[in-house]
What we know:
The structure holds three protein chains of three kinds.
Chain A: H1 4-25, H2 29-53, H3 62-78, H4 84-106, H5 111-131, H6 133-136, E1 148-150, E2 153-155, H7 158-180, H8 183-193, H9 195-200, H10 205-231, H11 241-254, H12 261-282, H13 290-304, H14 306-310, H15 312-315
Antiparallel strand pairs in A: 1-2
Chain B: H1 3-34, H2 41-58, H3 63-86, H4 94-116, E1 131-134, E2 137-140, H5 141-163, H6 165-175, H7 177-182, H8 187-213, H9 220-233, H10 239-259, H11 268-282
Chain C: E1 9-18, E2 21-31, E3 36-40, H1 47-54, E4 62-67, E5 70-71, H2 77-82, E6 85-87, H3 100-107, H4 116-121, H5 124-144, H6 159-172, E7 177-181, H7 189-204, E8 208-212, H8 216-222, E9 225-230, E10 233-238, H9 240-245, H10 247-257
Parallel strand pairs in C: 3-8, 3-9, 6-7, 7-8
Antiparallel strand pairs in C: 1-2, 1-4, 4-5, 9-10
Amino acid sequence: MFSERKLELLGFVVAALIVAALPLVTRSNYLLSIGVFIGLYSMVAIGLGLLMGYAGQVSLGHAAFYGLGAYGSAILTLHYGWNAWLAIVVAAFATALVAYLIGMPTLKLHGHYLAMATLGFGIIVRILFNEGGNLTGGPSGLPAIADLNIGSFVFDNDLRIYCLVWPLVLLQVVLSRNLLRSRLGRALRAIHDSEIAARSCAINTGRHKLMVFVLSAIYASVAGSLYAHWVNFVNPHPFGFVFSIELVVMVVVGGGATLWGPVIGAAALTVIDQLLVQLGHVFAPAKDMDVVLFGVIVVLVLLFLPQGLARGLRRKGVARDGA
Amino acid sequence: MQTSELLQYLVTGVTVGSVYALVALGFTIIYNATGIINFAQGEFVVLGGLVFYSLYVVANVPLVLALVVAVLIVAAIGLLMERLAIRPLIRSPVIVLIIITVATSVLLRGAAKLVWGPESLAVPTFSGDKSIFIGGAALQLQYLWVLGLTALAVFGVRLFFDHTLVGKAMQACAINPDAARLAGISVSRMVQGSFALSAALSGLAGVVISPITFASYDGGTILALKGFCGAIIGGLGNGLGAVVGGLFIGVLEKLGIGLAPEGYAGLQDAFAFIVLLLVLFLRPGGLFGTERAEGV
Amino acid sequence: MAHDSRPLLGVQRIRKVFGGLVAVDNVSFDVHPGVILGLIGPNGAGKTTLFNVITGLYAATSGAAMLEGRPLLGLTQDTIACLGVARTFQNLQIFPSMSVLDNVLTGSHRHGYSGLVPTVLRLPSVRAEERRLRAQAREALEFVGLADRAAVPAASLPPGQQRLVEIARALAGQPRLLLLDEPAAGLTTRETEVLGELIQRIADTGLTTVVIEHDMSLVMEVCATVAVLDQGKLLAVDTPTAIQANPQVIAAYLGEEGQA
């Protein structure tokens, strides 16, 4: 029998090998760019997974945090000439502050409130991107965002970005694992299991939920910044309600309360999406069916794998004892 | 701003506010019966408009018949949603219930896009394009339809809850489901009823507003949000509060546009949400309600 | 009763009204350091409500609760727990998705300080803290006799042992005041005996404890002081022997219910 720890290590090694394999077997920019998208979505979904799977809250506006990261980087580098890496960090801090302000009042209330507030927030942010005049470039957006670079090494193609994004995803998984195996992680799981008992253990439930919400916003912001520096261009289109919902679907499908669930969900959805686009070339209505299909997938997952979301997938991982 | 202008914003505000009020009332009815916030509420409005378009414009069904049938069809969709998506999961954690209604809304929206296409569909007004003038403000006849039918619906709901056996039973379920069950009331029937009624109200809103806003598959999310704002402002769970809250949002929104500097009209949708966030910050129990104890 | 020390817990004219129902009616009593106090009374007497008020789950209608002279009422549940008031629940409230050890570790939450950033980076300070908390938790598990079940999912234990997990979780926080809400509810006779012996050992450590219990023999055996509630009112606070002889108590409680 493998111990929990060895299984975890094994899972990590397998994932790392898969990630490393893609650029070795293909140099197709199409496939690599799909790989980058999966990586970026994974970065957002991992944070959202913590929020949904452990804090028991759902955000319907995470696309907005992704967008804030993207626009933050774009604006700071284009309009103010900042160093791109610094812009990423500052945009993440600013996004964290925004998330804190939204989460603070709503997370004290029932689960519906954060969902509705983030939904409204997402729409406001999208409107602001659209109406932001010269600052955001309006509906046509901001072009010519610089590539990232380290010294003379420029991340100017899909392969290089792939090699930047995926180590970050793997790092995120390690950080999540550290969090969940800690006092704070136990507090989150306790909140998930019984809020009353958690409070009786001196756990401030509101503050812990807020912490995860802010963390998930930071993850989304960094992913958004990387996106902006990768495609060198932002407009309001990708940061709307539909993307927020797709992120939720990724987490639901993969299972929020697991280390790799959000990554698997991100991969599954991106691939389905691409298949539909390809199918759309042959059978035109197919490309309009993605939304319906995602709706159906979520309903089916919830109906037939409700534990996948609520708590069940973690059950296998319960018997752990580090000593 | 001149008085006539102010009056104009008020009239328009109350009219769109009527739609928000019906949506808010729809939220409240389902919330009271189940504790669920139905994120697909806006889709009921959209479907009301689209179905009405098909009947009234495409199939040339007489006005009143088209209106009634459209409302009934949306009510049936509400029933179906309850049966297929909500009932199997009714005992799940809040987060699952939120996601299932979000998924349903996405599904309905996607289906609407496939059936009716992505364009906005024009629906003629019910009784011509004439307007009457009151104190310098133009009042289109369609506005009167909206206001009249909304008032009728709200009044009808009130009568239903206060004076019919089924209505009282639904209220009993909302107050204490266990006691209601002991009294021989079928709680699951009442939950079903709440979805049908709630969908019907939103469907009606969609029908009456369609000549003003056109019918389009993707308007639901924003309508749902504004309706929810209304419900929160009125104190979630309070039917009358929801109606007032909805009207309040409508008026505030139109006045906001009127007062906003040139070029910022695009921000009108942002307005309601800023109000929502403010209310959540300052008075989470609503402007009229008392704060609810939570979590125990 | 003669106690020179300041009370650890002072319950002062606490009143809790639900709608029109007076659940707790002007109840006052003191719990002195190191004392184990039994809180008894018929069902619906307001015992659990009183616990819920003291721990911040319910807001009191009026009155005060003082922990070493510091007012508790008005504070949130987690703040009160943070001050060292630990409790168990009448209907078990373990964390079902977690192992026994993780359940107990959660009880020592208030003894950890690491923030988010050090935690995700697993800095040496975090590891040291984790080791310290684990030692505390293992000690608590050993104390209740569950050391060999540490790695087992808590939900898979029989109810009697789940109760012990809950007590260990409360003890792991090294509280100043322990509130046990009907710890013997649903236990077999054998399990109740083990529990009685455990409560005795808790008393021997000098931990101030209030225990709500229906099992009179258990109460009479382990408690130094007994307080009787009836219909929200405090009938008497006295030694077990005096309580058993108190005609008011016999009339209101023992006579009526005749519990053993």
